[in-house]
């Protein structure tokens, strides 16, 4: 794609000076009757015009591919980007190549792209680093071509783009395992039934090849035939992580500290629970729209999703609460990062906790993040419904907040 708007826009500062000066000299020579001055003026005018006419107008046929090492970054980590240009057309010209980047990734790299014959490939390298999580676009690449005299230029754009993900900050939450709910044996047995079915814990008749150590003697005596224990599958406890993305609830604009705290907290909890054997569901407004909220998510896709999420003006906590309510029975662990912004919506969230389930909440105090103050304790609405809560601010450590949530006391804050 050519970005020059016309012949005048295709001239450099030098080319415009030549043209203007040449026209002035032609006019002065004609008025004053100096033919030599007129000839010099015509030469100055003719040079940029001639270059404009003779300058190649055919856009190069090139492909652009990128590789980022490592493919996923964390904040403050440096990544190396390799850009490969491959010429599919005739011999190309010499270009100044500029990669378009988000300003948070650093300065835009510029390189001289030399001539390439058909099929030739060139590789350029540059580094990127971001202080914040997010999904960033690498590209497009803008090519600038100048004539040998520096009088004209062309701007072309290679539309290839590559997404770079910077994952949320993740902190360690300790080595202690997460206890299950009060239902069953720390909540593991109900989860095994819910995820694998009653057959996982049932008794069946003996089959050839079954080990005798698996014979269930009480059932054998009762039924009058050999009965064995069904082979158990590992109990997989289930956790639901809920992210409050209401733009009006998180104070500020742009990179909102309260939202970044929430994302980092849930990312840390997700890694901790997956390592502890939990099946994790991630509830965000994006997950509700694309239909993935009902499906378990692996740690890698969960981190990718949390890298992309942003506060949304149309986000509503009651929609997330309704989706979470379908998981709230059977010993599920619910972990929410929510802003104490609207009592009505908080009460809706509080009401989804059912007996036998465990609900924990990082409650972000908007006043401590620079927003309006709240009259009541931010944790009150949830704590009254049996949630374990901790009030957090910008300087609250995630490990300390998590330790507080795991403690026996209810409503303890950091």
TrEMBL record:
<dbReference type="Pfam" id="PF01882">
    <property type="entry name" value="DUF58"/>
</dbReference>
<dbReference type="InterPro" id="IPR002881">
    <property type="entry name" value="DUF58"/>
</dbReference>
<feature type="transmembrane region" description="Helical">
    <location>
        <begin position="17"/>
        <end position="34"/>
    </location>
</feature>
<protein>
    <recommendedName>
        <fullName>DUF58 domain-containing protein</fullName>
    </recommendedName>
</protein>
<feature type="domain" description="DUF58">
    <location>
        <begin position="203"/>
        <end position="274"/>
    </location>
</feature>
<keyword id="KW-0812">Transmembrane</keyword>
<keyword id="KW-1133">Transmembrane helix</keyword>
<feature type="transmembrane region" description="Helical">
    <location>
        <begin position="40"/>
        <end position="56"/>
    </location>
</feature>
<keyword id="KW-0472">Membrane</keyword>
């Amino acid at each position: 794609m050519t970005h020059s708007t016309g012949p005048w826009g295709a001239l450099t500062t030098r080319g415009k000076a030549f043209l203007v000066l040449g026209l002035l000299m032609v006019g002065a020579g004609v008025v004053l009757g100096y033919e030599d001055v007129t000839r010099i003026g015509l030469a100055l005018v003719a040079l940029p015009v001639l270059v404009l006419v003779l300058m190649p107008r055919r856009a190069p046929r090139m492909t652009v591919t990128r590789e980022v090492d490592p493919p996923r970054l964390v904040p403050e980590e440096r990544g190396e980007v390799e850009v490969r240009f491959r010429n599919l057309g005739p011999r190309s010209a010499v270009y100044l190549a500029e990669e378009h980047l988000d300003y948070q990734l650093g300065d835009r790299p510029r390189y001289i792209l030399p001539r390439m014959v058909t099929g030739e490939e060139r590789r350029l390298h540059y580094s990127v680093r971001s202080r914040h999580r997010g999904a960033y676009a690498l590209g497009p690449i803008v090519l600038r071509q100048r004539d040998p005299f520096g009088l004209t230029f062309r701007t072309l754009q290679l539309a290839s783009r590559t997404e770079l993900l910077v994952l949320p900050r993740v902190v360690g939450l300790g080595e202690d395992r997460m206890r299950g709910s009060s239902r069953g044996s720390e909540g593991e047995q109900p989860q095994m039934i819910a995820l694998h079915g009653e057959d996982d814990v049932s008794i069946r008749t003996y089959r050839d090849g079954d080990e005798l150590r698996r014979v269930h003697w009480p059932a054998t005596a009762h039924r009058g035939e050999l009965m064995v224990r069904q082979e158990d599958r590992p109990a997989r406890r289930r956790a639901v992580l809920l992210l409050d993305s209401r733009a009006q609830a998180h104070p500020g604009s742009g990179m909102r500290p309260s939202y970044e705290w929430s994302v980092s907290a849930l990312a840390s909890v997700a890694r901790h629970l997956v390592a502890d054997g939990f099946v994790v569901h991630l509830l965000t407004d994006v997950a509700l729209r694309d239909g993935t909220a009902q499906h378990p998510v692996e740690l890698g896709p969960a981190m990718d999703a949390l890298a992309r999420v942003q506060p949304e003006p149309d986000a509503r906590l009651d929609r997330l609460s309704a989706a979470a309510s379908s998981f709230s029975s059977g010993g599920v662990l619910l972990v929410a990062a929510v802003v104490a912004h609207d009592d009505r919506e908080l009460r809706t969230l509080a009401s989804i906790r059912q007996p036998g389930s465990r609900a924990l909440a990082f409650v972000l105090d908007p006043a401590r993040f620079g927003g309006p103050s709240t009259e009541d304790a931010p944790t009150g609405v949830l704590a009254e419904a049996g949630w374990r809560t901790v009030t957090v601010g910008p300087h609250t450590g995630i490990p300390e907040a998590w330790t507080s949530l795991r403690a026996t006391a209810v409503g303890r804050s950091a």
